[in-house]
């Protein structure tokens, strides 16, 4: 699974979760545990790969810099783009715990959120101080950073319209502004239309300029299915786009948790060589 699919999931959660959570919602301790373990595995992989890439850039020759940066780019992009779901998810968990007056989901999501913040800072530090980064890569990555920040604040606006989650955004004033706009437009646009519009916009915003092959497809899938299984199936079962991912949750939750724990001790070896990329068919707006 590519991180761009996490944006679709985040958009769906932002639009539909606040109202859903006000009903009789049950949580899945197993799914929350799988979310934490899968996220921890991915954080550890990111950490090892970022450290390896930093060492290669520090000790390598100038002629190897393009190859090193091409290998680092999928990891950096994945950290930036998947941060949207991480921040939306902790906001959903905070909303759940406040509505239910308990502390169950928020501590798990907050642990992952803090780890993701650290990974993002390390990735941005590599972009800022890494040797040999050419403008042809720096410019689109910086543009991607700004885009993910704005998308995060926009999606949090949907949740902020019901619960105070401004602190998880990048620009609290912007989150509040989006939240106010969403509250004022309620009734004029139904949730199905809002979700459809967000999906189409997400496909455009995170389409062709992202590397086609994800850095951690397996863990991205595990994280998504854990999120979708955490608060029951009714939230996702009626959606034709999200439902295929929801169905795979059965496989995810049937996996031996020990296999995920073992990944904490045995992350994949970073691949320095640039992999072949399949061009995306999604057009990207100028």
UniProtKB/TrEMBL annotation:
Top-rank taxon: Bacteria
Name of the protein this chain belongs to: Uncharacterized protein
Species for this entry: Bremerella volcania
